[in-house]
Amino acid sequence: MIRVGVVTFPGSLDDEDAARAVRLAGLEAVPLWHASDSLAGVDAVILPGGFSYGDYLRCGAIARFSPVMDSVIDAANAGMPVLGICNGFQVLCESHLLPGAMIRNAGRTFVCKDQSLRVEATDTAWTNAFAPGAEISIVLKNGEGNYQAAPDTLRMLEDTGRIVFRYLGNPNGSANDIAGISNERGNVVGLMPHPEHNVDPLVASSLDGLPFFASLAAVLARA
Ligand SMILES: NC(=O)CC[C@H](N)C(=O)O
């Protein structure tokens, strides 16, 4: 059985939802505690949403120094699929696994809504089950979701096809409408919206989160 580690930091909120989405895709969810220095032999890792360390300093800035992150960084650099959702995306940027940084939303309010996105890249471990250019709607809920990077970094992301999701109707001021990006190899993806909240018809207005986890299952089944 394919095993997907879901990290819990102090202040994580959506680790249980991420684990549930993993199970719905027919994969095994393995809890990984932030203070552990082992990845327990998992095949992929999810850094979930939430408020790690109370969002002190900057969102994700302290979680990046949790012992488990040393192992996550090594595994990601060796090609393991890693998905950072919202606070997890912030941790990936703070870890320098992904470039750029998140600042406070334009308007300086916490935004919580269903958000339309366009899937711009389907050659990643987490988006291969989408049709190129697919328009999807998933939950967005954060205070620091305004993605910014230096002009040459933005140009590099554009030129190399590493912008994975773009907002349709920019909710927070993100540069180039960026909602999610990948690393060069496409195994590491971070996005601000929450696919793990869009997997169950009982509570979600769309099931557009399911292909993220189906994409991972497909990639690992081929490996
Ligand atoms: N939902 C989340 O993961 C929120 C991330 C972070 N705490 C923020 O408000 O930006």
TrEMBL record:
Keyword set includes Signal: no
Q: Which domain of life is it from?
A: Bacteria
The record's annotation in CDD domains points to: GATase1_FGAR_AT (cd01740)
**Gene Ontology MF term list:** ATP binding; glutaminase activity; phosphoribosylformylglycinamidine synthase activity
Give the CC-aspect GO terms: cytoplasm
Q: Kindly state a single biological-process term from the GO annotations of this entry.
A: 'de novo' IMP biosynthetic process
Keywords (A to Z) from UniProt: ATP-binding, Cytoplasm, Glutamine amidotransferase, Hydrolase, Ligase, Nucleotide-binding, Purine biosynthesis
Key word Coiled coil present: no
Q: Which residues form the active site?
A: C86, H194, E196
Q: Quote the subcellular location field of this record.
A: Cytoplasm
Q: Which SUPFAM superfamilies match?
A: Class I glutamine amidotransferase-like
Q: State the reactions this protein catalyses.
A: N(2)-formyl-N(1)-(5-phospho-beta-D-ribosyl)glycinamide + L-glutamine + ATP + H2O = 2-formamido-N(1)-(5-O-phospho-beta-D-ribosyl)acetamidine + L-glutamate + ADP + phosphate + H(+); L-glutamine + H2O = L-glutamate + NH4(+)
Q: In which pathway does it act?
A: Purine metabolism; IMP biosynthesis via de novo pathway; 5-amino-1-(5-phospho-D-ribosyl)imidazole from N(2)-formyl-N(1)-(5-phospho-D-ribosyl)glycinamide: step 1/2
Q: What is its EC number?
A: 6.3.5.3, 3.5.1.2
Q: Which PROSITE patterns match?
A: GATASE_TYPE_1
What does this gene product do?
A: Part of the phosphoribosylformylglycinamidine synthase complex involved in the purines biosynthetic pathway. Catalyzes the ATP-dependent conversion of formylglycinamide ribonucleotide (FGAR) and glutamine to yield formylglycinamidine ribonucleotide (FGAM) and glutamate. The FGAM synthase complex is composed of three subunits. PurQ produces an ammonia molecule by converting glutamine to glutamate. PurL transfers the ammonia molecule to FGAR to form FGAM in an ATP-dependent manner.
Subunit details for this protein? Part of the FGAM synthase complex composed of 1 PurL, 1 PurQ and 2 PurS subunits.
Kindly give the PANTHER family that the UniProt entry links to this protein: PHOSPHORIBOSYLFORMYLGLYCINAMIDINE SYNTHASE SUBUNIT PURQ
List the protein's name: Phosphoribosylformylglycinamidine synthase subunit PurQ
- The gene name on file is purQ
